[in-house]
Amino acid sequence: MPLTSPRRSALSEQVISALRAQISSGEWPVGSRIPTEPELVEQLGVARNTVREAVRALAHNGLLDIRQGSGTYVVATSELAGVMQRRFAEADPRHIAELRSTLESSAAKLAAVRRTERDLKQLDTLLVRREEAWESRDTEAFVTADATFHMAVVAASHNDVMTAMYADLGEVLRDWLREDVGERLTAENHMDHTRLVDAIRVGDAEAAALEAAGYAFQCRQARLTPAPSGD
Asked: Taking all residues of the chain, what is their mean pLDDT, rounded to a whole number?
């Protein structure tokens, strides 16, 4: 629907909000190229300069990356997510693993107590999708599926602050996972998350917390442990 406003400043804010909503909702996922400037002008029914101003504002805030000759790409889902990714780009991987373990363990413990039937259905669906991505041996598809599954576990905690914080750390955690699984998915670094879902389903908070806490370190240990020589 075209956007209208008698004041250009208010109109620019509307366009920024509209573009931000496309990003935060996942309509334009991280890594994707957004529609071209003429396409956005047509979709939003505003002047080219207004679209350009909005795109530059979101690029300045770290959500978009304007690449001359290629297009404009989504690089973060929120202003804070972009800041987080830049801030922790060079962080010690062990510290990222510790942070992930702490957040996911706390969230899983709450999820076991607060989860709804809708949450369980979502977790079951995403667990299947995660395994399918693993079987496809497509590393990027697996990283996305795994991150989406863990985000759903955190969301099932029904703690809005924890969920928002985890979402803002999403790209940091995905970068960590990409590094950990490497270019090839192998049996040595595969981890079944069925026990986590089962613990949440039956309301076993302690078991859910223990399962979630161990994944980050199991993944890293699997990568650091040499494969048997076969001698």
From this structure: 85
